């Protein structure tokens, strides 16, 4: 395996590992969001789009090169008589196998790059949605608490008003008794 294909295979293995890590169920989306918002990741994101585009271009070029190699060895079977030289048949099949292997490695690396980017985007969106839902819940709970407090205050004021009304009625009755007593004493004096 040449150096370029070893690098692409290593990159493919790293992508598979990252996708596996992102899909682990016990690491929550909010934890990933915290990791995505770290300073190191933000620094990587500054150059991330450029890196991603360059990476895609390199993988597409390697994919096209692998297709070219496969076509080259497909054309050889028609031009060369492989029946006369058994070693050439094995050599031809080995070269064709390597070209096909390189095609698969480049194709899967290209696919995994797109999948990895989409997975990170979806996890980030999910964490943002969870955070906004949590904020809405806190806001609704705060509004509920304010409404409950206002209801309690209204109930207390109603009870206070009922108490004041009862006290007013009691004072009116007492006033009426006192007035009746005073008028009764006045009538006795006038007689």
Question: Which structural traits does this protein have?
Answer:
single chain, 4 helices, mainly alpha, 191 residues
Structure notes:
The chain contains four helices and no strands. The protein is an all-alpha fold. It has one domain (3-152). Helix 1 packs parallel to helix 4 (86-190), helix 2 (29-36) crosses helix 4 and helix 3 (39-79) runs antiparallel to helix 4 (86-190). The chain crosses the membrane at residues 6-28, 40-64, 103-120.
Number of H/I helices: 4
The portion of residues forming beta strands comes to under 5%
Are there runs of 5+ residues with pLDDT below 50, and where?
none
Q: Name the average pLDDT.
A: 82
Distance between the terminal alpha carbons, to the nearest Å?
135 Å
Shape: rod-shaped
So what's the oligomer here?
Answer: single chain
The description of the largest β-sheet is:
none
- Class derived from helix and strand content: mainly alpha
**Proportion of residues in helical segments:** over 70%
Which helices and strands occur, and which strands form pairs?
Elements: H1 3-22, H2 29-36, H3 39-79, H4 86-190
Can you describe this structure in just a few lines?
The protein has 191 residues and is mainly alpha-helical. The chain is 91% helix and 0% strand. It has one domain.
């Amino acid at each position: 395996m040449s150096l370029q294909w070893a690098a692409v295979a290593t990159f493919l293995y790293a992508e598979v590992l990252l996708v596996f890590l992102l899909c682990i169920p016990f690491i929550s989306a909010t934890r990933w969001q915290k990791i995505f918002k770290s300073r190191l990741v933000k620094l990587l994101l500054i150059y991330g789009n450029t890196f991603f585009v360059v990476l895609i271009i390199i993988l597409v070029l390697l994919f096209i090169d692998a297709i070219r190699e496969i076509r080259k060895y497909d054309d050889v079977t028609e031009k060369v008589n492989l029946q006369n030289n058994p070693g050439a048949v094995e050599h031809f099949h080995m070269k064709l196998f390597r070209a096909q292997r390189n095609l698969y490695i480049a194709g899967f690396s290209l696919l995994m790059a797109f999948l990895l980017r989409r997975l990170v985007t979806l996890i980030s969106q999910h964490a943002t949605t969870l955070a906004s839902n949590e904020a809405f819940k806190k806001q609704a709970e705060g509004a509920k608490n304010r409404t409950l407090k206002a209801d309690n205050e209204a109930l207390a004021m109603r009870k206070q008003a009922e108490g004041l009304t009862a006290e007013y009625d009691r004072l009116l009755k007492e006033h009426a008794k006192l007035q009746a007593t005073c008028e009764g004493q006045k009538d006795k004096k006038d007689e």
